[in-house]
Every structure is written in C-alpha cells, then in structure tokens.
Automatic annotation (TrEMBL):
Protein encoded by which gene: fabH
HAMAP family: FabH
Organism, scientific name: Desulfomicrobium baculatum (strain DSM 4028 / VKM B-1378 / X)
Protein name: Beta-ketoacyl-[acyl-carrier-protein] synthase III
UniProt-listed CDD domains: KAS_III
Pathway stated in the Swiss-Prot or TrEMBL entry: Lipid metabolism; fatty acid biosynthesis
Note on domains (UniProt): The last Arg residue of the ACP-binding site is essential for the weak association between ACP/AcpP and FabH.
Amino acid sequence: MSSPCFISGLGMHLPRTLVTNSDLEHIVDTSDEWIRTRTGIATRHFAKADEPCSVLAYHAACKALENAGMTAQDLTHIFVGTFSGDYNLPTTSCLLQDMLGLKGLPAFDLAAACSGFLYCLETARAYACMYPDARILIVGSEVTTSRLNFEDRTTCVLFGDGAGAAIVTGQGNPGRIKVVDAMLKADGSVGGLLTIHGGGSACKPVLGQSIGPEYFVEMNGRDVFKHAVRCMVEISGTLLERNGLTTDDIDLIIPHQANIRIIEAIGKKLNVDSDKIYVNVDRIGNTSAASIPIALTEAEASGRIQPGMKVLLTAFGGGFTWASALLQF
Ligand code: ACO
C-alpha cells in the first residue's frame, strides 16, 4: 500500500512575448479564423533567446517554493519533464539545480513529452513513498518553439512556451493537496505519428550539414487527435473506477491543453459539462509538459479550485504516453 503523498506548492511562468494568430499570419500561410476554429487558440507565449527551458523552469520553481512556504534549501530532489531542454547535456534539471544553488541534490530529466509533468508526479509519488521526508521539486518546462518548423503551418500554430512546477512532499511534510492516485500508460507502436527524429542516435547530425524538417515536430494531426481523445478518456475512467468514483464526484477536470476540440470531445465522452472542464488553451496554446501544471496553478490561484474539491488531471503526448492523476484539495 502506498503512503500518502501531497502537493505543497504550485507555480507557473510564461515567457514575456505574447504572439497572436495575426502575428503568425506574417510567418506562415494561415489565418486567425482557421486557427481559432480548428484549435481554439488565440494567443500563446514564445520564449526569446534569454528565456531557455531552464530559465522558465527556474521562475516557475521559485514561485512554487514561495507558494509552499519553502526555500530551495528545503528540497531533496529535482525532476524536470521536457522534450525541449536547453541542451542534450547538461540536462535541464542539472542546470536548474545549479541556478537554485543546490550542489549535490539528485536531479534528472524525464522524457514523456506532453505527459511529462504527470510522469514526474507519479515518479515523485514513488520517491515520497521511499523517503517520507522528501520534498521534491517537479517541473514541466518547454520551449516548444525551439523544436517547431515555422515553415509547417500544420504544427507551428499549435504550440507555445512556458513552465509549471509543484513541490511534492511525503507523509513527513503533509501539504494542502493530497495526491490520491495516479496512472501512467504508453504505446511505442504508434510513436511514429508524432516525432522529432533529428539529433538522435538513429538520425545523427552530420557536422557541416544543414538540418532538415526531421529536426522539428512532425505530426499526423488527425491520427494524434483520435488517439489523444481515446487514451485520455480511457485512463480517466479507469483511474476513477479504481478509486470507486465517477465523473459526478469530480469538481474539475484539467485535461492537457492541446486543442479545444480534443478537450470538448473528452468532455462529451466522459459526459461532463463544459463548466467542469478547465480551459486555457485559448490564451496559452499547447505547452506540452508545462500544460497541466500551468493550468493547475491558474485554476487554484483564480479560486476556480476551492478546498474540499476533487480534481482530475489527464495528459497525452508523444511516445505515445498518457497519464491521469486524482487530487483532493
Ligand atoms: N492554417 C490554414 N490552413 C491549414 C493550417 C493552418 N495553420 N494547417 C493545416 N491547414 C489546412 C490543411 O493544409 C488542409 O488543407 P487542404 O484541405 O487544402 O489539404 C486543411 O487545413 C485541413 O487540414 P486537416 O489536417 O484535415 O485539419 P484538421 O481539421 O484535422 O485540423 C489539426 C488539424 C488542428 C492539427 C488537428 O488535426 C488536431 O488538432 N490534431 C491534434 C493535434 C494536437 O493537438 N497534437 C498535440 C497533442 S499531443 C501533444 O500535445 C504533443
């Protein structure tokens, strides 16, 4: 049996540049009307050169620490979910550890694309079980724009940059949000539908050779859409069922913010009214691993989540990976 695990603090950070659909009309052959109708996105934030993944992560982490009433020195571990880290090496979690002045603290990156934050949460839950005094910083941070092909209108209009963070604690330091349960899934057999091949050991960069579209997000949007809806609906239902709950018991669902049509389809299949589903994709776009913690931080800070509420999180991303988590505020 697992021991209790908590979230003691939440924080988020968005880069300073706001990009509208009209701005994108100057870059690719698209329109505000097409983007709004097909995706629900109106604006997103793009990071500048002085805002790499580690810097976004650092700002979100500082806010989560403040929200938890802790300092960096209280932390015991750092996990960062990202597919768009500063470098291949050093890892973004090690860069973040250095920025926080925490020499010696274990730190690693976790690659599960848009499910990265929930994969970090479940990993932290296991660590909190092993080390009840653990105070683990988990961060979803992405500069997705560093891996977008701005000549491909089918992908570049969908994503944005940002970071969200949480402090996960074990039973030695109970926090205000209980992590009741979580579940992770993956299916590598269909991973080819959403890829960034370039730069890996099977698709090596060659010195002096220019890079091609394989170095950026490539996606079969229609198929990804179908898998995303089916997987998030299935895993949410399974998680609720194994906790003896139905969607009627849930006060708010926070799905991965990829596309309003995916979110609406999830709501329909789970038979949940739209007022019980949190949406910020219109303002922030798809920030991959940062999507869930940004939405969660916003929802609590705005008062949309109140003490006593049950909140269901669900995410889907490249790999494919998908996940769900149940929180009790
Ligand atoms: N602006 C204008 N026209 C466009 C654009 C654009 N940005 N992008 C595509 N089009 C055109 C296409 O070229 C096509 O034109 P054609 O009919 O002349 O060939 C037409 O619009 C329709 O294209 P479809 O791909 O059929 O459009 P669809 O309705 O399927 O919407 C979309 C595309 C938005 C990508 C949709 O498939 C989708 O949302 N998929 C899920 C993608 C997603 O959210 N992935 C992330 C989830 S996982 C993760 O977060 C990593």
